[in-house]
Amino acid sequence: MTQDTSGQPKLRVRNATKAYHTRSGDLIAIDRCSLDIKAGEIVSIVGPSGCGKTTFLWSMSGLHGLTSGEVLLDGKPVTGPSRDIGMVFQEANLLPWRNLDANINFPFEIMGTKPDRAWIDSLLGRVGLDEFGSRFPRELSGGMQQRAALVRALSYKPSVLLMDEPFGALDAFTREEMNRLVEEIWLDTPTTIVLITHSIEEAIFLSDRIVVMSPRPGRVASIHEVPFPRPRSPEIMSTKEVFDLTNVIKLEIVGTQQSRYPARVAEAQPEAQ
Ligand SMILES: Nc1ncnc2c1ncn2[C@@H]1O[C@H](COP(=O)(O)OP(=O)(O)OP(=O)(O)O)[C@@H](O)[C@H]1O
């Protein structure tokens, strides 16, 4: 998790286009999306449902190939899964038959490497799970499972962490607690983070920049700098500046959805008759 001082972007996405082959033809999920992300930056991706956020994020992970375009990590093409990239999903995806410690060890068993126990213990302590290593997923709350997933993703010290709506399934209080935790960990060890969220408030709380995507085929419609100092306190989050930025982004997303509405009505008419 070292800071890059070369000046080149940590992660660079150039003209990423992804078409899925479906029974009714090719579906272009994202179209020529480009984005440079600096080392140690937190960038959120927001946009209307189905606009291609997950496709965009997964492209960065190397977990699925692009139809055209490229993704570079430290200047080198990302062509498959890399230990330099960690992922957290909406579901914690812990293996139910393994306790917490065994779940965290799992990636190391797959990679055939030895975990850095001191680092993992420090992470577990950080997220308040140091006493829970022998517990099974069913014995942990949703928030605890998601904290465990965060520890598992950070356990092998990736320099980039990709998070796909990681706290979307949690209640509002737990979600805020998770946001504070991510910021706290990031302030200590500035990993580069790209995060998908449906919550603009969450995006503002966590990010240096917020990328707004247009409806499918997803494109980068705009990028907003988030200028608020860190750590971001609840007081900052209730200022007029945050309120205004939230509204600008919300209106942008609603605006792009409204521009699609007449087309949807036109499509729906024959069925309604
Ligand atoms: N494996 C796939 N095969 C075919 N189509 C897919 C596949 N994955 C996604 N899509 C389609 O691609 C489009 C973009 O999907 P994606 O999940 O990337 O959007 P999203 O913005 O993350 O959606 P949401 O906000 O609802 O989670 C959608 O129309 C979706 O139905």
From TrEMBL:
Domain ABC transporter intervals: 11-240
InterPro entries for the chain: AAA+_ATPase, ABC_transporter-like_ATP-bd, ABC_transporter-like_CS, ABC_transporter_ATP-bind, P-loop_NTPase
Xref: SUPFAM superfamilies: P-loop containing nucleoside triphosphate hydrolases
Keywords: ATP-binding, Nucleotide-binding, Transport
SMART domains, A to Z: AAA (SM00382)
GO molecular function, one term: ATP binding
Family matches, as PANTHER family: ALIPHATIC SULFONATES IMPORT ATP-BINDING PROTEIN SSUB, TAURINE IMPORT ATP-BINDING PROTEIN-RELATED
UniProt similarity note: Belongs to the ABC transporter superfamily.
Protein name as annotated: ABC transporter ATP-binding protein
Species, as recorded: Mesorhizobium marinum
